[in-house]
Amino acid sequence: MSGKRQLLRAVGTNVKSLSRRVYDTSPEVTAVSRCTYDATTSTQLSKCPFQPAVAETSFNTSSINVIPPAQITRGLEAIPGPQPFPLIGTIYQYFPGGQLYGMSWYDKLAKLQELYGDVVHEAVPGGLHIVHLYNPDDFLEVFRNEGKYPTRDSFFMLRRFNNKYNDGVHGIITSSGESWQKKRSKIQGKIAKPKSVRTYLPGQNPVADDFVTFLRHSRNNDGIVEDLLPELYRYATESIAVVCFNKRLGALEINSKPGSEAEQFINSVNDVLFATQSEMGSLPLYNLYDTPMFKQLCKAQSYINEVTIKNAREAIEYCKSKEIQEDDHEEANLPSHLNNSSLTDKESFTLIGDFFFGGVDTTSNLIGFVMYNLCKNPSKMAILRQEIDEVIGQAREITSENFDRLPYLKAVIKESLRVTPVSAGNLRTLATEATFSGYDVPAGTMVVLHNEWVGKQAQYVPNPDEFIPERWLRNGKYPPIHPHVLLPFGFGPRSCPGRRVAEQEASLCLIKMLQNFDIEYCHSEEMKCEMQIINKIITPLKFRFNERARP
User: Which parts of the sequence bind heme (predicted)?
Assistant: First the structure.
C-alpha cells in the first residue's frame, strides 16, 4: 500500500473512532439528552437512549479516551482470553481442573476480567465466538453497531422448538430481522407506552389485594412465610394474565388444588428457563437430535402454548360478544388487539405466549430482591413506607395519579436492580465491525455487556456495596453515575417491551405489602441466587409478616 493510501486510511479510521467516542459536553446537554456527534461536521448522529442517573448534572466524560488507530488491535485472535481448543473451544475452563470450575456466574465474570481485562474473548462449542465487555464506555458502541434489526442470539433450543413444533413461527424472543420488527411494533402500543400500561391498574389492583389475603393464609402461627418466592410466582402469573387476557387464572385461590393450571404453567416456565440456561454450557447436540433436555423444554413449552391459546381465544370471543372496540381501554385486551392486526392467529398466539412466559419469572424475582434489600436496610424501608403513607395512605385503589407521585419507590427498585439485578447483562450480535477499548471486533460476533459487574465497581458507582436509593433521585445531592452502567431491561429497539408492566406489577405488590405488614427477613442464611438466564433466587425467602400497627 502506498504512503498516500496509508495516510488516507489512518485519517478515515481516526474520524470513525472519533465519531463513535466523542460526546457533547456543553452545559445545556444533560444526561437525559446526551448525544454522539460526527467529529468532522458536528452533525448529531443519535440520541443516547439510556436513563440518566441525575438529570440536572451531566456525567463527566473526560475519562472517555479516543484511541489512536495505531493502537487498535484487530481480529478476535488478538483479544485476550482463555486459549481455545478445537471443537470444545474454551468450555474446558468450566470443568473440574479449569480456572472457572465451581464458581458462581458473577465470580466467573469477575475472574475473567481480573485475568484478561475489559475485553475478553471466548470460543464456544459449535463455532460461536463471544466477546465479554466490562467497560460502560464500550456499551454505547454496541448500541451504535447493532444495526436496524438488533440481533440477540440466544434461546437456541426454543428456536428449534418453534421451527420443529410451532410451524416455524417465532415470537419476539426468537425472531429477527423484519419479522421481529413487525411483531414488536404490533405489541409495543399495548404494553410499552405509560398511558397504555396504566389502563391495567383497575384489573391489577384486586390482584395485589388478593395477594395480601393469600399471604395472611400462607404464614404460620409466628407470622412467617417459609418461602415467599413461590407465592410471588402466583402473584406475577395472576397479574400478567390481566394484561394478556383481561382475566384471572385462579393462581391466588386459597384452597387451590395441586396441579392446577396456574401451578403447571409456573413449573413449565421454570423448565424452559432451566433448559435454556443449560444450552449455554453444553455441546449443541440438541441441533442434531432430541436430547433429554430438549424434550423437557418441548413438553414445557407445549403446555405454555396450550394455556396461552386457550385463554387468548376466550379473550377474543369475549370482546366480540360484547362488541368491545379497540379504543375501549377498560375492556380491550392484548389478544383482541393482535387479532385486529395483520398477524396470523399463530403469530399472535406465539407473541402473547412469549410475553406471558417472560412476565412471570422476572417480576417474581424482582419483587423478591427488592423485599430482601429493604429488610436488610430498614431505614430505607421506613422512608419508602412514609412516602406511601403520605401519597396513598390506606387506600385500596392505586390510581395513575398517585402511582406517578412515588419517586422514592422508583429509586428503591432501581437501586435494587443495581445491587441484585434480575438480568446480569445484555447480549447482542454485531451488525457491523466495532472497536471496544482498543480492540476491533468483526461483524457477526456475539458480545455480552456485563452490567451487573460494572454496577458493583467503585470506579463507576460510589460506595457500590451500600444500598442507597437516594443516588437515583433527581435532586443533585449525589454525584451522577455513568449513564450506561444500569441497563436492567436492555437498551435500544430490542429492550424489554414489558419493562413498564413489570415495574407496575412490582410496585403494586410492594405498596400493598408495606401498607399492611411489618416485614422482616428471618432466614439464618443470606440470600443467594443462581444464573438461569436471569438471576434466580435459590435461598428460601423466609419473611415474617406481622400485621401493621395502626396509629
Answer: 496
Which pLDDT score is estimated for 27?
Answer: 27
- The Cβ-side half-sphere exposure at 300, using a 13 Å CA radius, reads 22
Characterise 5 by phi-psi region: left (phi > 0), alpha (psi -120 to 50), beta (else). alpha
Q: How far apart are CA 423 and CA 489, in angstroms?
A: 8
156-162+179-411+493-547: CATH topology: Cytochrome p450 (1.10.630)
- Write phi, then psi, for 544 (nearest 5 degrees): -100, 130
325 — pLDDT class (breaks 50, 70, 90)? low
What's the pTM value of the predicted model, to 2 decimals?
0.83
**Could you read off the pLDDT of 54-71 as tens digits, one per residue?**
333 344 444 444 455 445
Of 241, 215, 216, 206, whose CA–CA distance to 398 is shortest?
A: 206
> Is residue 43's pLDDT more than 70?
no
| 198, 506 Cβ separation under 8 angstroms | no
Q: Is 98 helix (H, G, I), strand (E, B) or coil?
A: coil
For residue 509, say whether it is annotated as part of any ligand binding site: no
Contacts of 141 (CB under 8 A, 6+ apart): 20, 21, 434, 435, 436
**Hey, CA dihedral for 149, 485, 483, 405, is it positive or negative?**
positive
Q: How far apart are CA 524 and CA 214, in angstroms?
A: 24
Rounded Cα gap, residues 86 and 123, in angstroms? 9
Cα–chain-centroid distance for residue 191?
15
52: helix, coil or strand? Answer: coil
Q: How far is CA 197 from CA 98, 183, 201, 443, 504, in A?
A: 47, 18, 8, 37, 8
119, containing H or E segment: strand 119-124
Task: Spell out the residues 6+ positions from residue 464 whose beta carbon is closer than 8 angstroms to its own.
Answer: 455, 456, 457, 458
* pLDDT band, very low/low/confident/very high, at 323 (cuts 50, 70, 90): low
What is the C-alpha to C-alpha distance for residues 454 and 476, in angstroms, rounded to an integer? 22
Q: Which pLDDT band holds residue 36 (cuts at 50, 70, 90)?
A: very low
Can you read off the three cell numbers belonging to residue 281? 454450557
Closest residue by Cα to residue 450 from 66, 82, 114? 114
pLDDT of residue 124: 83
**Rounded-to-integer distance, Cα 490 and Cα 98, Å:** 31
SS3 302: helix
- State the cell numbers at 395: 387506600
Using DSSP's 3-state secondary structure scheme, residue 306 falls into: helix
CA distance 244 to 304: 13
Which amino acid is it at 131? V
